[in-house]
Amino acid sequence: MKPPVPQEYDQWLEQLQTVDFVLTELQLYLDTHPSDPQALQQFRAWTERRRLIAGQFEAQFGPLEATGGARSLHHWDWVESPWPWQV
Fold this sequence. Notes:
- The protein contains 2 helices and no strands.
- With about 90 residues, the protein is an all-alpha fold.
- It has a domain at about 5-60.
């Protein structure tokens, strides 16, 4: 049995969910307003923010997706992360 998930795990996931929500809303807005420079700037800034948060999460807890890449060259660490139904 895998060890319990630390409280920080949920906090990091909540941050990612928040950023993903903002990015989805900005994407939908940009689909209908593709020339809005302020929205495009916000989308780029939030995309970078997500990249940083996801990188920190993956460094601490492992990959968010199987396609996120393995941290080890000799071990498939995707199976080490908690599965969605385990958190």
